[in-house]
Amino acid sequence: MKAIVINQYGNNDVVKYVDIDRPDPHVGEVLVKIHAAGVNPVDWKIRSGLGQRLGMSLPIYLGGEIAGTIEKLGDGVSEFKVGDAVYGIIPSGGFAEYVVAKATDLARKPTKLDFIQAAAIPLGALTAWQAMFDLAKLSSGQRLLITNSSGGVGSLAVQLAKVTGAHVTAMGSAPNEDYVRSLGADDFIDYRSQAFECVAHDMDVVFDTVGGDTFERAFLTLKKGGFLVTAVAFPKDEANKYGVGVARVHCKPNAGQLVSIGELAETGKLKAHVAAVLPLAEIKEAFDLSEGGRTRGKILLQVIG
């Protein structure tokens, strides 16, 4: 079978499209025939050296967001049967024709979504869910600022927040305003034309997916006792400095949350925008697109049609 692997860290030159043996599932695992896989910044960051900092061992088989069908069951698996369509996130190996995954990390694919659409959802939706609801405790009527509202995570965060009844202020570049408002955003800030911290104020929650200077300035938009959760920055002493809560979200597999997310997708309340679909062999081109940071929505690899 085909898979994407790195044997050393570096740029796209270290990314290899190789033949490997098909794995077999062990107790509590399933073998998934991959139809589509999501490409995320964490994938090329692992390639560039993040894998070493995370304690991963080379060689590393890349890819963590998948949609496919159950090909084989390991011992003890009763929640799925062969042929079931599933989606979810896994630690590694998703950029391949087949992958072994823990059955408890997966959920049934929403029936109204094809595999491409389904593979565009798990990582972004789980990250947004765990950031806004588990950590920041976002609730109906609260004011939320999302620092990048048009990306793969931010666009899903806008929709999830609106379903909850929050008032959403979305940041982005002017060309993305119509798109972000179509997702349900109440207010829009063009960060290129104005200092967002001078416009947004008294926020209950900030969800940051940008980091750097944006992360630092976002604290100025919070009311006292508010909460900032980031997917990219590393908080230090900001909680004491600004009198707010702060945390970093570390997205984890959660089948129960995927079921709830899937129900929203089934009813049309949650949609992922697909920016590009490339074949598995064109992983380097997919990484180039992702690293460029100019895409609206999600980049997908189509593995099996």
Automatic annotation (TrEMBL):
Statement: the UniProt record of this protein carries the keyword Oxidoreductase: yes
GO molecular function term, any single one: zinc ion binding
Protein's UniProt name: Zinc-binding dehydrogenase
Enoyl reductase (ER) domain sequence ranges: 10-301
SUPFAM superfamilies xrefs: GroES-like, NAD(P)-binding Rossmann-fold domains
Record's keyword terms, sorted: Oxidoreductase
InterPro entries with a match to the protein in the record: ADH-like_N, ER, GroES-like_sf, NAD(P)-bd_dom_sf, Quin_OxRdtase/zeta-crystal_CS, YIM1/Zinc_Alcohol_DH_Fams
Source species, domain of life: Bacteria
SMART domains, per database record: PKS_ER (SM00829)
